[in-house]
């Protein structure tokens, strides 16, 4: 594991695994139900908080073993202080359970397989039984070898404290002041989002950093593996919490019977599936391959291309002009009076201005000749590394899930269908359907012309509707659209569930101007869980004027598929 000097090891590990694992814990049926105050069965929450007793006992023993392994007096004192914090929690555990409004659980109550797996893993680590460690269990004799075990133990402890602090703080942040004050699990939320728990998490992380200073890269790799393993086991505990009293809105694949109801997922490509705009990728290909033609004259047998200097200058002019005119078009739309309620018709009329702009911009690109002379193999190679990991893993799980009756479509303004197809085929996702513009080739080399199939929000919506015509004739169906640009607005609103990924300020501003509400997905799910509890119905419907926002593909996967 590479080490960045000056950056906390513990913070780095949390940053690396937080987005994936903490999201799956937060979006679990248990925590969505807890946040919505709909854990109606008293045994469900009591079982959950009763597990704390087992955690705390394991923590206390693990800290005791770690203290014994520490070589430095300051380290011993620091770990001893952490153990004292846990003992104080143990002493007040019964009071905490009663303050939450529950009777104490039977001391011999079942602990749950997932919980046992984590506590067994933790105590095995604290005892020196560590996978990948060269020292044989029970033969860790030197002070340095023992110090390593102390560091390993704190690595196995750190994600538990940090994960529960994160989840409780997230839930607290999503609740309104009125909902929070009347929340039936307010005591739990207060305790786990408290400054005291945050201090414990920070103290554990600081001690992990201190104990890891002299470790080798191989030993730091073990630290990372232990942290990762602990995080996975902790998420397993959350998702395996027993809930039996009513239906949950997550994951979507469990709420709907997709062997009977067809799921259609549609998404944009640029800056939704990718971290970069495809136009910039094509420009980079042109710039990288152009110098070869300048130097060896290889273009003489191909379509003539401009010099690399002229190419770079032309791309810069086109890019600047596009950005400036796009911003002017948006500002022109926003100059009209803001509507008080969601007004889809006015939004459609306004987006016609952007349609004319996009067509002119594409004409300038063709006339400039910047897309001339690109080799199709260069384009396909560039596409293979474009898709974000979270996006790829989500679609892989969709297409490989035999229990889902689903299809996936990519709708994009991208000039090059081959670039998109290559991007998805690299992840064994060539079953996805791609709808975009296409470059024209002569003997595998681009002519600079574009076959224009999708240049406006209206054309993207037409493709969306054409796809759904067949699905509607098949009976029950559900559509999810994922996008992050202005061109996606109409499709997002027409889908049963519209999910906005990314941080396009233009999309937010235009949507807000025409009465569209942007709601964090987790917050929206909490509200829907309440509605489900009240009237046993939580159907997703198009044209509600509500779009759900996420910051990662992990959130989308957690919502639709779960862990």
From TrEMBL:
GO cellular component, one term: cytosol
Cross-referenced SUPFAM superfamilies: HAD-like, Heme oxygenase-like
Coiled coil: none
PANTHER family according to UniProt: AMINOPYRIMIDINE AMINOHYDROLASE, MITOCHONDRIAL ISOFORM X1-RELATED, BIFUNCTIONAL TH2 PROTEIN
Name of the molecule in the record: Thiaminase-2/PQQC domain-containing protein
Taxonomic source organism: Malus domestica
């Amino acid at each position: 594991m590479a080490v960045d000097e000056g950056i906390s090891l513990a913070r780095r590990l949390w940053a690396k695994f937080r987005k994936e694992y903490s999201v799956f814990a937060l979006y679990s049926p248990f925590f969505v139900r807890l946040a919505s105050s709909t854990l109606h069965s008293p045994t469900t929450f009591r079982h959950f908080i009763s597990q704390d007793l087992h955690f705390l006992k394991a923590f206390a023993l693990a800290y005791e073993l770690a203290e014994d392994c520490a070589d430095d007096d300051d380290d011993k004192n620091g770990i001893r202080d952490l153990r004292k914090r846990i003992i104080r929690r143990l002493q007040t555990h019964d009071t905490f359970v009663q303050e939450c409004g529950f009777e104490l659980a039977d001391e011999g109550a079942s602990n749950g397989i997932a919980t046992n797996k984590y506590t067994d893993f933790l105590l095995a680590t604290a005892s020196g039984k560590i996978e990948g460690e060269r020292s044989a269990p029970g033969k860790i004799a030197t002070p340095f070898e023992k110090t390593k075990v102390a560091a390993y133990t704190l690595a196995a402890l750190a994600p538990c404290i940090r994960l529960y602090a994160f989840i409780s703080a997230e839930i607290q942040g999503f609740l309104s002041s009125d909902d929070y004050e009347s929340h039936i699990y307010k005591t739990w939320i207060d305790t786990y989002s408290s400054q005291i728990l945050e201090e414990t998490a920070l103290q554990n992380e600081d001690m992990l950093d201190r104990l890891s200073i002299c470790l080798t890269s191989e030993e730091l790799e073990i630290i990372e593996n232990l942290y990762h393993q602990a995080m996975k086991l902790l998420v397993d505990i959350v998702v395996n919490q027993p809930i039996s009293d009513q239906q949950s809105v997550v994951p979507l694949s469990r709420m709907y019977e997709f062997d009977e109801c067809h799921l259609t997922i549609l998404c944009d490509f640029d800056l939704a599936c990718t971290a970069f705009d495809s136009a910039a990728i094509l420009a980079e290909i042109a710039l990288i391959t152009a110098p070869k033609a300048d130097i060896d004259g290889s273009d003489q047998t191909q379509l003539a291309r401009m010099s690399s200097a002229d190419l770079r200058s032309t791309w810069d002019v086109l890019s600047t002009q596009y950005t400036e005119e796009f911003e002017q078009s948006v500002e022109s739309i926003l100059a009209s009076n803001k509507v008080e309620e969601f007004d889809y018709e006015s939004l459609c009329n306004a987006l016609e201005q952007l349609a004319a702009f996009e067509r002119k911009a594409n004409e300038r690109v063709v006339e400039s000749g910047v897309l001339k002379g690109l080799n199709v193999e260069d384009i396909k190679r560039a596409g293979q590394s474009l898709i974000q990991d979270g996006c790829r893993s989500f679609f892989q799980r969709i297409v490989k899930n035999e229990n889902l009756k689903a299809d996936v479509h990519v709708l994009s303004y991208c000039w090059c269908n081959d670039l998109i197809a290559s991007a998805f085929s690299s992840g064994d996702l060539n079953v996805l359907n791609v709808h975009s513009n296409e470059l024209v080739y002569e003997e595998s080399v681009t002519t600079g012309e574009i076959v224009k199939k999708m240049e406006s929000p209206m054309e993207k919506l037409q493709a969306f509707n054409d796809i759904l015509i067949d699905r509607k004739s098949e009976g029950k169906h559900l559509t999810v659209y994922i996008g992050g640009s202005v061109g996606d607005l109409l499709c997002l609103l027409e889908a049963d569930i519209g999910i906005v990924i990314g941080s396009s300020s233009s999309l937010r501003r235009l949507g807000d101007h025409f009465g569209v509400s942007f709601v964090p997905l987790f917050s929206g799910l909490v509200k829907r869980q309440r509605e489900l509890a009240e009237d046993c119905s939580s159907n997703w419907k198009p044209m509600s004027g509500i779009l759900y926002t996420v910051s990662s593909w992990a959130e989308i996967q957690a919502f639709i598929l779960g862990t």
